Amino acid sequence: MAGTNKRACDEFNLLSHSRRGFIKAGSLGMCGLALPQLLRQEALASALGKPVNREKSVIILWMRGGPSQHDMWDPKPDAPVEIRGEFKPIATSVPGIQVSELLPKTAKIMHKWSIIRSIAHRSIDGNVGHSAGDQICFTGYPSGPSPDTNVMPSCGSYAAKQLQHLNTAMPAYVMIPKNVPGTGSAWLGKSYAAFETMADPAVTGPFKIPNFTFAEGVDAGRLGERTALLNTLNNPDLAESMKNLGDYQNQALGILSSGKARAAFDLDSEPQSLRDRYGFMPAFDPADPQRCGAPNWAQRMLLSRRLVEAGVRMVTVDLRWWDFHKQGFDSQKRGFLPRWDMAYSAFIEDMESRGLLENTLVVAWGEFGRTPVINKDAGRDHWPYVMSGAFAGGGVKGGRVIGSSDAKGAVPKDNRKLPHDVLATIYNHLGIDTKAAYLDHTGRPHVVLPEGSKIEELF
Asked: Within a domain: residue 271?
């Protein structure tokens, strides 16, 4: 036993404790705190005096870059050509609702999802950059001195803080493939940060998550030895941080030994026909005439379905890069819109066929819209004054349009909604108390969401 303990201790001294590597056996070897802290937060839910909602999940399809409202979900066929652009509207499965002609598949299932056309930022402090928009949309608070760094926790981190895991073999909050500005945990701490897959399931070859393996030289047997070592350390002489691990450390080790998490992330187990239905896309190529390169995110959406099916509470999927300052119509026509149409329609139908839409709210939106007037480079620039979003599942009634923009698609015409209202809708679905206050590092209290109301018209 002494030899076993020495070997484990030597490994402990060498191992990394990175948050995103929480499933790696090395990080959990002796007293890696990331996953145990992540699991320990479950106990906090009971302290709120509220029953935990064990059945609700959220998938955020984050269309980073800012999709064009004119060219997707809010066409303006009667506007001048410099506003309406090249694409014509088409009818959908719901009479009276039109979308871009490049979205025929999603048009056919319009009765399964709804559009909000009047989302607008109140203020982003004069900063119309991507990260400033990200921060408000994920936190409900303005960005700090550096928009790339969270000063307030994301909605996913609050979900991990307040709610128990749907499945203790899975993390509560997952980011595919890695964090974007706004998705961090800020002062809540790394225990409530997203697990980042750090891998793209759209690339060629088998999908493997870095760090989602045993450390080199560690197998199930060695993991058992480490568990035994941990048991010998559970004595009153340990520091408080070690004593508090308890059942949470055991749960962390259980994830590794059960293999349930590995199975959930095994995208290659999906039928090839379904993966083809979602679509495969080439990787980013800045030299491509599509300006931002063809999007490579369809398989990310499929992975998000697998994760909520396995019991992940919140999944955010980075679907960048909708930033068409140049050659916007060519980029959308040749790449983005047909591929979005293919992937989103497959995703909604797949979720529905598996009975997942009832309890999973799906929100597709970006950090802002695009300028009404097309620029000299045949693109549209950043525009926080109105944008559209797509909503499905979680009790959302399909075939609805909430709000409208003016004739130019420049500002809300009626029923304006703030990003805070979208967040309030997400929180309401999950059963999160938005008025609960948490203390930052200075002891100052902050409520989960400073303003915003559930968007009742969706339900």
From this structure: yes
Tokens at residue 362, please?
């799906």
Q: Which of 79, 65, 133, 72 is nearest to 329 (CA)?
A: 72
- How far is C-alpha 90 from the chain's CA centre? 30
Give the model confidence (pLDDT) of 378-413 as tens digits.
999 999 999 999 999 999 999 999 999 999 999 999
Report the CATH number that the domain containing residue 206 is assigned in CATH: 3.40.720.10
DSSP output for 245-285? THHHHHHHHHHHHH-HHHHHT-GGGS-HHHHHHH---PPP-
Co-location of 236 and 119 in the same domain:
no
DSSP run (H or E) holding 195: strand 195-196
CA proximity to 88, closest of 78, 368, 191, 327:
78
Q: Using CA atoms, how far apart are residues 135 and 121, in angstroms rounded to an integer?
A: 12
Q: How many other β-carbons are positioned within 10 Å of the β-carbon of residue 72?
A: 26
In a domain, 38, yes or no: no
Strand residues in 280-345 grouped as ranges (E): 314-318
**Same domain flag for 293 and 380:** yes
Q: How open is the CA angle 158-164-166, to the nearest 5 degrees?
A: 115
In this prediction the pTM is: 0.83
Report angle CA 62, 159, 34 to the nearest 5 degrees: 100
Q: Is residue 292 part of a domain?
A: yes
DSSP class of residue 215 equals P
Phi, psi (deg, nearest 5) at residue 164: -75, 160
Residues spanned by the domain of 232: 1-32+217-258
> Residues 63, 24: one domain?
no
For the chain, give the percent of residues with pLDDT over 90: 59
Least confident range from 158-167, 186-195, 229-238: namely 229-238
Residue 11 clears pLDDT 50, i.e. is over it = no
Q: Which residues contact 437 (CB under 8 A, 6 or more apart)?
A: 445, 446, 447, 448
The total domain count for the chain is 2
Instruction: List CB contacts of 330: < 8 A, sequence separation 6 or more.
Output: 289, 290, 291, 378
